[in-house]
Design a protein that fits this description.
349 residues; alpha/beta; GMP Synthetase, Chain A, domain 3; Rossmann fold; 2 domains; eight-stranded mixed β-sheet; three-stranded mixed β-sheet
């Protein structure tokens, strides 16, 4: 069978190999950059390094070997890995953030879907599980963390030079442009300044040792998202949407952006999923039914949580105390804790 094999048949065989954290295969994701027949026989396969984790790269190499040898009988092949530094802007390339075990982005395709509410409550829920957690507010134009955590006029303390300490509240370490400019000051910056701020928050904040860094991204697929994806190795992205079609369309763009930068998608959170009458218990799906679930099925990712519309959830954020802190037994708080457990379970070893 090996004598009749072509580069195309090798590519087709490699479509059986899934990238860890994805439902898609390594050919669809662009991890396999080329398959070239060698003059002396066999094939040269160029593998794009999409992670700094040696364990993931070894897993892919083992899976490729098994697929080619046992699947189509090819025993002669050379596997080459193109390093990240060859494709990313900075010489350092995409790296692990020192002292941080996992980095998870919370994103949305459009504003107003409750992305920051999800990020804040997820961070607090992870802290309640006994984990050390940081929350980076990368929404430079619309920072929400200072209000949601009720930090008032508190400012990060300088550590000398360009470094500074995050503010800590409710067991979560926090950094936000809102801490430096004030709650009501507008941010009138062009793209390079936004990218610079995200880089500085990542690398100049003295996060210390922590299990998770949650990054609250701005809506859309712009400078902040690209900077984050280029600077550090993300362990996963959560896409927040509401059930209506216009939000789902924008969320789909966010899903596909993260796929293009080879970030594992943990799944979708459908926020404002339904309203439950506190008196009679009847549910009313104000923004439609099943949109998040349909998108999850379509994109072959998980529906991680359905968060109800709750006045208590909104009030808690407005008054500076995320709901999982204010009322841990609230139905929405329980949903966030379940989300936190699913995020922990999805992390690579």
């Amino acid at each position: 069978m090996a004598a009749k094999a072509s580069a195309q048949s090798v590519l087709e065989a490699l479509r059986q190999v899934k990238y860890p954290g994805y439902q898609d295969d390594i050919v669809t994701l662009g991890i396999i950059e080329e398959v070239v027949p060698k003059a002396g026989g066999g094939f040269s396969i160029l593998l794009r390094q999409a992670t700094e984790r040696d364990g993931v790269i070894q897993h892919l190499a083992d899976a490729i070997h098994h697929t080619l040898v046992h699947g189509i009988g090819i025993e002669e092949f050379e596997l080459r890995v193109r390093k990240l530094e060859a494709e990313l802007g900075e010489k350092t390339g995409r790296v692990r953030l020192e002292g941080t075990k996992y980095i998870v982005a919370v994103a949305s395709g459009k504003g107003g879907v409750g992305k920051s509410t999800v990020a804040a409550n997820l961070a607090c829920a992870l802290a309640q599980l006994g984990l050390s957690v940081g929350l980076l507010d990368a929404d430079i134009y619309g920072p929400s963390v200072p209000m949601m955590f009720g930090t008032g006029d508190e400012r990060p303390k300088s550590a000398g030079g360009q470094n500074f300490y995050p503010i800590e509240k409710y067991g979560v370490k926090l950094i936000s442009i809102g801490f430096f400019l004030g709650e009501r000051a507008p941010v009138i910056w062009r793209g390079p300044m936004v990218m610079g701020a995200v880089r500085q928050f990542l690398k100049d904040t003295l996060w210390g040792t922590q299990d998770f860094l949650i990054v609250d991204l701005p809506p859309g697929t712009g400078d902040a998202q690209l900077t984050l994806a280029q600077q550090v190795s993300l362990d996963g992205a959560i896409i927040v949407t509401t059930p209506q079609d216009v939000a789902l369309l924008d969320a789909l763009r966010a899903v596909r952006m993260f796929r293009q930068v080879h970030c594992p998608l943990l799944g979708v959170v459908e926020n404002m999923s339904y309203f439950e009458c506190p008196d009679c218990g009847e549910r009313d799906e104000l923004f439609g039914h099943g949109g998040g679930e349909r998108m999850a099925v379509q994109e072959r990712i998980d529906l991680l949580a359905k968060i109800p519309i709750q006045t208590d959830l909104r009030k808690a954020g407005d008054e500076g105390m995320p709901l999982v802190i204010r009322n841990p037994s609230h139905p929405a708080s329980i949903a966030f804790k379940d989300l936190a457990r699913r995020v922990v379970a999805a992390m690579p070893e």
